[in-house]
């Protein structure tokens, strides 16, 4: 079943230097339970596309539907959780308080809030950090807390915009592994923006390769890797083959610029 | 403790400059007085002495140095004279006496606090309006800036007279002038604070489809707290200045401003100086109090005070 459906989607920004084609004729279908990565160089429109899904940008042409609704309706219906590039925790709220933020806004009862905070902190391996303030946590832990915040209200879709981009490789590997476990346990549909080829191949069931000027999709790869993925799968032949195809797609996108 | 030495050095340097200045500043008065007491003075006529600067006269009459520190009505009182005056008017008088600086201080302080409360409330309201309403942003801010370019000394008597003509007297007109000076830093700081959340934090709230109301109470207002405190510290000292200025041109009979005026008019420099220092200490205490509240609040909010 298609959860997200984009049909010849176009988005043009009007800037002082003239119009910029952020997205041109983007067609994509994302099914329930998919883990979809968007990969490409900067300016390829991967973040813009994710923001279109979230209803944070309005396309200038074409159609996009989320859960059968327009993105704006889906946003009002709180259909997705969004994880930004930076954790963006409120410094004046504890970790627990930050996770409660969407719950307070959405009007959950106090008891329900507390129950959910405990549950999602467990999910991201931060149990016991509820009363700490953000500055008392490392960057990786803060980003995990921001994922917990996005999970707290049980949206079926999780949109992640380079969530681990600012973290070092070791922390990143660890978080990737945890994210896969979390995806397996919660069966969410995940849209994940990255510019790391290994990260995209390791995490995804579907890899969307994009290229810039104008931002467009150059390849969509359905991953042959099994759902169960230990970190050392990255040395397997299948993994390397997929990574090659992604790299070829990125290179092809560059040639015709 | 590390900052104690530099602080004391600066205080010491200021005191030294003051003490040294007393001699030339008071030398002409001292010479006249000494002559009346049959002490030899060079040159020996007041007219001839007018040709000398304070320093020049002091260098010719080094034996009079001591006397410059003990005049009853010096041009520049020495630190110990001011200290004695302050001790007598603060500690030794009953606080209800008209000669007690504590009494006058309370008169000024009450106008300061009322004006500060009005100014802060008005400033916050204006800032919220400016941030949420484009028309207010365009229209209010220029007036707020213009209001601060008018010398308060020129405006204060007009406000007092106008309010007086409609029967409002006493504390409130002074508080209005305090508020007039203190609302501005609050507006500027709060506008900046309410606008401090970045695009990502605002987008986050959009993904929750939060209402503008929730955005204000949960994001913009808490984010503005550090900015508010910076403004409050400027605002409270501006309030005190406003209250004192309001007492100057109106013949007020109580308050720091009244004491400064009385000292000037009746040739009692010690009274003026004692009131000046008491006002400065009051301002320092108020700012210090707000610094404490700031540290306490920000620590409770999980943010370190800077």
In total, the number of strands of chain A is: 9
Q: What is the number of helical segments of chain B per DSSP (H or I, 4+ residues)?
A: 13
Q: Return the domain count of chain B.
A: 2
Low-confidence stretches of chain A: none
Major β-sheet of chain B, in short?
none
- Report the β-strand fraction of chain A as a percent range: 25-35%
**Oligomeric category:** heterodimer
Strand content of chain B: under 5%
Tally of separate domains of chain A? 2
**Within the CATH hierarchy, at the fold level, what is the topology of the largest domain in chain A?**
Rossmann fold
Average pLDDT for all residues of chain A: 89
CATH class of the largest domain in chain B: Mainly Alpha
Gyration radius of chain B (Cα, Å) is: 25 Å
Family (chain B): Belongs to the binding-protein-dependent transport system permease family.
Transmembrane segments (chain B): 106-131, 143-166, 172-191, 227-250, 270-293
Keywords (chain B): Cell membrane, Membrane, Transmembrane, Transmembrane helix, Transport
Membrane topology (chain B): Multi-pass membrane protein
General description of the model:
Chain B: Residues 101-294 form the ABC transmembrane type-1 domain. Chain B: One of its GO terms (cellular component) is plasma membrane. Chain B: It is a multi-pass membrane protein. The complex is a heterodimer of chains A (257) and B (306). Chain A is α/β, with parallel strands linked by helices and 257 residues long. Chain A folds into two domains: 2-79 and 156-255, Rossmann fold, CATH 3.40.50; 90-154, no CATH class. Helix content of chain A is 37%, strand content 26%. Chain A has eight helices and nine strands. Chain A has helices spanning 46-53, 71-76, 95-105, 110-123, 139-151, 169-186, 197-203, 237-255, and strands spanning 2-15, 18-31, 35-39, 61-66, 80-83, 157-161, 189-194, 206-211, 216-222. In chain A, helix 4 packs across helix 5 (139-151) and helix 7 packs across helix 8 (237-255). The two termini of chain A are 35 Å apart. Chain B has helices spanning 4-36, 46-49, 54-60, 65-68, 79-91, 101-132, 134-147, 152-165, 171-194, 199-207, 212-247, 256-265, 269-300. The longest helix of chain B has 36 residues, at 212-247. In chain B, helix 9 (171-194) packs antiparallel against helix 11, helix 11 (212-247) packs antiparallel against helix 13 (269-300) and helix 12 (256-265) packs antiparallel against helix 13. Chain B has 306 residues and is mainly alpha-helical. The A-B interface holds A 54-56, 75-76, 78, 80-82, 84-86, 88, 90-94, 101-102, 104-106, 133-135 and B 200-201, 203-210, 214, 218-219, 222-223, 225, 301-304.
